[in-house]
Amino acid sequence: MDKVCIVTGGTGGHIYPALALADKIRALFPSVDILFIGNDDRMESDVVPKAGYAFKALHTSGLVGNVFDKAKAVGQMVRARRQAKDYLKAFKPDIVIGFGGYVSAPVILAAHSLHVPTMIHEQNSIVGKANQLVMNQVDAIVTCYEKCSEVFPQDKIHLLGNPRATVAQESKFDPDYFRSLGLDPDKKTILVMMGSLGSSSVNELMKEALPDADRSLQFLYACGKDNDQDLHLFDGSGNIFVTPYVDTLKIYKKISGIICRAGATTIAEVTALGIPAILIPSPYVANNHQFYNASVLVQAHAARMIEEKDLNAKTLREQIDALFLDETERQLTMKNAKRLGKPHAAYDMIDLCNQLVNASK
């Protein structure tokens, strides 16, 4: 495997697992040439080049809106497929890997037409539209949830997990960074985060719920980069520390529990490490996929879940007490979460890539 093309875009949920795999390929095989393809107007056009990878842009839109918007999106897809074909002919990859987002569909279809081996990765329990569009043309499909087998062709599925799980598993605890956040390394630490931008509605609720929590717990509350007004919510509390952003990889190994959304990347990371979680799925995502992601863990007694419609100070405090103060329950949940984790996901995906490339020769 000498050249790898990765296509991803739209959201961090698609982009960061793709970068995790690319980083692992680069670490294991420094001579491999990696090219990313993504949208010209979404976050990947900024994030991927900053990570040090070559990037080629396409212009695509999702199939949403009225009939005219959808017709325009189809036209963009046709042009993007043609342009993707030119990119692939010039780069000559051994394999093309799609991580979802509507930009991935024309690139995967272009690769298929050029007889280049293809693989797609589905991060969520509910299969995305782009992956549904190309699933019958690809050579392999990597999933994180068994539920995806309800949609994908059975003979192509490989339940290998999310490469971000490997990143989390291999992360190193940074005691200086931990202390810089105001935290006591001898206390149980509960991380509270609702994504990089936070959630203003949840922030309001935290004002009620956290001050009454048991003082044996300390909370690190990442309120989100757009919520600076909440940085002083708990001044003087002594056990609640607020920051707009936290580098989770530097502290994961010291976290006793987490209260968070149920995005694919977060779940991959916490299960790889066995961190007991209270999941609050975002109701504002496509196909309510976070609810289904969380449900898989709840059914395995690997996490607790509170839907946002049921979220209030009382329900949150009850779950905090039940999961984080009862050490027997916390340890059981940790064990079950770890059982669901796929800490070798990145390595397993690279092995599968090599198998597909070798089979095509």
From TrEMBL:
Question: Its membrane topology, per UniProt?
Answer: Peripheral membrane protein
Where is this protein found?
A: Cell membrane
An example Pfam family from this entry, by short name, is: Glyco_transf_28
Please give the GO cellular component terms listed in this UniProt entry. plasma membrane
Q: What pathway is it annotated to?
A: Cell wall biogenesis; peptidoglycan biosynthesis
Domain Glycosyltransferase family 28 N-terminal stretches: 5-141
Boundaries of every Glycosyl transferase family 28 C-terminal domain copy? 189-345
Tell whether Cell division is among the UniProt keywords: yes
UniProt xrefs under SUPFAM superfamilies: UDP-Glycosyltransferase/glycogen phosphorylase
Residues annotated as binding UDP-N-acetyl-alpha-D-glucosamine: 11-13, 124, 196, 290
Entry's InterPro entries?
GlcNAc_MurG, Glyco_trans_28_C, GlycoTrans_28_N
**What are the BP-aspect GO terms?**
carbohydrate metabolic process; cell division; cell wall organization; peptidoglycan biosynthetic process; regulation of cell shape
Assigned EC number: 2.4.1.227
Annotated catalysed reactions: di-trans,octa-cis-undecaprenyl diphospho-N-acetyl-alpha-D-muramoyl-L-alanyl-D-glutamyl-meso-2,6-diaminopimeloyl-D-alanyl-D-alanine + UDP-N-acetyl-alpha-D-glucosamine = di-trans,octa-cis-undecaprenyl diphospho-[N-acetyl-alpha-D-glucosaminyl-(1->4)]-N-acetyl-alpha-D-muramoyl-L-alanyl-D-glutamyl-meso-2,6-diaminopimeloyl-D-alanyl-D-alanine + UDP + H(+)
The record's annotation in PANTHER family points to: GLYCOSYLTRANSFERASE, UDP-N-ACETYLGLUCOSAMINE--N-ACETYLMURAMYL-(PENTAPEPTIDE) PYROPHOSPHORYL-UNDECAPRENOL N-ACETYLGLUCOSAMINE TRANSFERASE 1
Q: What function does this protein fulfil?
A: Cell wall formation. Catalyzes the transfer of a GlcNAc subunit on undecaprenyl-pyrophosphoryl-MurNAc-pentapeptide (lipid intermediate I) to form undecaprenyl-pyrophosphoryl-MurNAc-(pentapeptide)GlcNAc (lipid intermediate II).
Protein name (Swiss-Prot/TrEMBL): UDP-N-acetylglucosamine--N-acetylmuramyl-(pentapeptide) pyrophosphoryl-undecaprenol N-acetylglucosamine transferase
